[in-house]
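Residues pack. One example:


***
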Amino acid sequence: MSEVATAPVVGHSRFRRVAWVVAALVLAAAAVVLWQKLAQKPPPRAAPPQIVKVAQATLGDMPVVLNELGTVMPTATVTVMPNQAVSGYLVDVPFQEGQDVQKGQLLAQIDPRPFQAALDQAIGTLQRDQGLLSEAKMDLVRFQKLVTLDSIARQQAEDQAYVVQQNEGTVKLDQAAVDTARLNLGYASITSPVAGRVGLRLVDVGNYVTGSSSTGITVVTTIKPTTVEFTVAQNDLEKVVERFRTPGVKLPVTAYNSDGSKALATGTLYALNNQMTTSTGTVTLRATFANDDEVLFPNEFVNVRLLVDTLHQAVLVPTPAVLSGAPGNYVFLVNKDTVSVHPVTLGPSDGKNTVILSGLGAGDTVVIDGTDRLSDGAKIRTAAATTPAVTAPAATAPAPQGSEIARTPAATSGPR
């Protein structure tokens, strides 16, 4: 009776276990399907085209200009000092500080009385010895006549000839002493050795001055004409020397104020130093300026722009189009609705436009704005129509401040 009762219970238990297993398998399959669906990424969306501005490469002239820092160097700067041969008390300083003086103009007067007395003494000695020489010459003539008459010994006449020679030597010494005394008297009047502008007075009247003084009386500086001295790197020296040695060619040099906003004067390059400074790898050049308006002040720092040459019919692109990165110097070349990284070789630049020596031709379109969001092959859309690059200034006109010629344009961005 008991065996018959337990049979349905065992069957029901097995059915429940099978049901649980089936339910677990269904849930696991559902979980796997759900996980696969959730793990799937949404299909990528196409990147929208980047909005950029473009411009076309054009042909034009580009001046090759070197921008350097220079110093105004006067053609003459002289410290006025007494001559080593004279010393004494200053009795007059007849110049006004800051005035223009001419060469030979009196600047200071040392008390001349001691030097005048020395000159008078030398003149007196000369006159005395000249009298003795005249007397000796007359005696010589007399003795030579008596010798012919056999009235005196020949030796006496010969001795008298030697006396005349001695007196002639004495007179020459006296004449030299007179010249020296007269020269010293002239040195007592201190004059300007050059034409220029006198500086501040360094010694007042009443002071005792000597030629060994280190300060001097004043300083005279030539204002016009003047020169500007500047240096050029050795990498740029070859083209400067080549143009400088070309017959009939004068390289114009323009001096600008310290911030480069105003052109002060224009001159010409006239001298190159004969050796290079090894510590800096530069060569010193000097340009001359008429400076009639005296705008260049001695020892003033100025910005110098040397026009070396002019490239004619060069390929020009706006400078913002030029980038630098892993490929080197490059531009983003526009190909219909996409761009490509295009390596280029750069020439001089005036800040607004840059010369492309190789890699582009006139009419090629490049990106000038929006390059920071681009990569090779990116799609683009032109923001608005742009005008071609403006032709560079004429060869004789230096680049304005803010548009100076760079040997290699600065990098603005790299490829992304």
Remarks:
- The mean pLDDT is 85.
- The chain has four helices and 22 strands.
